[in-house]
Structure formats: C-alpha cells, structure tokens
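General statements about sequence and structure are easier to judge against a single worked case. In the encoding step, the backbone of a single protein was reduced to a row of integers, each denoting a local shape. The record that follows shows the chain in one-letter code together with its fold in token form.
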Amino acid sequence: MSEQQGHNDDLHFVYVISALENSVPVAPCKIGITKSPASRLAGIQTGNPRKLELMSAIPIPGRMVAKWLEEALHDQFEDFRLVGEWFDVCPVDAAIGVCTIAREMFLAICKDAPETAERIVDNLGIAKHIRQCFDFIAYCDKRGLPLDTKFAPRVSPEQTAIH
C-alpha cells in the first residue's frame, strides 16, 4: 500500500508485517500502528535476518481509533501471541482481520448512520484491500502454494459484507 495519504498529520496505519518464503507470507507476523509503514518496515527489517514484507497497511484517521483497532486485533489473536506484537498467525489472516474489525469498528462508531460508515470504509480502501487478500488466497490455491490460513477459508468477501 502506498503512503499517498501520509501527508495527513492525524492519519495512522494499522499494519501487518511478515517474512516471505518462496513468495508466500509466513508466520509469525507483527501487528502494530505507525504513521509511516515504510519507515516502520525498515526499522523492523534492521533487526531481522529474514526478508520482511509489509502485508497490510490500513489508513485510520486518528491515533486513538488506530490504537483501538490494534488492541482489538491483539485481543482476537491473543491465543497466538508469541511476544509483544508478534503472533503465530498467517499474515493473510491478520490482514483480513484488520479489514473486518476496522469495518465493524466504523459501523459501531457510526451506528446511527451505517451508510456513513460504509462510505468511510470505501474511502479508506478497506473493501478493496480485503478483496485483494481473497484474490491472493485464490492465487496461492491455484498454484499449490502453501498458505497456512487458519481463519480465512471460513469467510468470504460476501460474509464480511464487503463487496
């Protein structure tokens, strides 16, 4: 994802970073927040011998809202926590989790105006991002690439209500 919106001082990104093996993202993955995903990736890469990839970076308006989303994701994957913000979860599962929980969060915040929440979700590119995750799963399946998703096969873009 590009940082095209990075000029907004109040914009934060909830990100998922993981290593790649044979062009496939593998666990563990790091789930966090930052104002600059590229800089954060570079900083984490410095201390990691494996090539890391930014798997997901969803723009969220406001640090407080980004922090809520990050904490919700950490709670969702708590049983898979290794240490700190590192989780033994397929990065695609984590990326889908970011999108799904972000959408649910905006619907809850705008509960009296769901069309506003859906507009926010669209403007932030969340729907597009989740479709890309499912396209990547299909790509891996078609080519027989080992993608260790635990959660993604149980849902589809339609089930997440993101069309």
Observations:
- Residues 91-109 form the longest helix (19 residues).
- The beta strands are 11-21, 24-34, 52-61, 81-83, 86-87.
- Residues 11-154 form one domain.
- Residues 140 and 146 are 7 Å apart (CA to CA).
